[in-house]
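Consider the following input, taken from an annotated entry for 6-phosphogluconolactonase (Denitromonas halophila).
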Amino acid sequence: MHVKQFRPEEWAVRSARLIHDAVLAASHRGDGCKVMLTGGRSAARLYLAWRALPGFDQLRAVEFFFGDERCVQLDDPESNYGLAMRTLFASGVPSGCSVVRMAAEGPDREGACLHYEGRLPSKIDVLLLGVGEDGHIASLFPGGALLDERTRKVAPVVGTKAPRERLTVTPVVIAQASSVFVLANGEAKAAVFRRVAGGADDFHALPACLVGGATWLLDTPF
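Applying the prediction step yields:
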């Protein structure tokens, strides 16, 4: 487990630089980089700061995916894809890069999951995750059956937080990622980190235990 603690006013920029460097490092090691994005208010702050970095527009051969998506229309404020397009890609997707979205707005959610799973690479190089005050990551909520999934990579889920109907990657994808960053703003999320760092290992009660080896990005003392 790794932790980076930044002052609240610096959190977005310094976290963005750290993630940007991880993307560049992965690109240098192989043929491009596979990045999985997340949603939420912390992600929006991070994406605005990342987009503003001098090197963002120079990224090449990066494929951006999503770890989960709400079953809403693309122009809905709750859409993770819409959030990324309004923030990280507000000035366009860097040349030679691509965005692969989860098509969660249609009625055939099982079909959408199969289609998206077919688009996923064998491994994500840089995985970004938000974390909820209840310890959920992606759309894997406490007590959810998908926490035990070991075959499928993408599945529909009914969460405990609105919008409840979603698509999400499963622990299979998370476990195979090379680098994982957890966006943990505020005291409530720092408290989740402290539980994981303190040895909590019941991922059914606290899904964040699945990423105990990640780099946690905090803006409060831990």
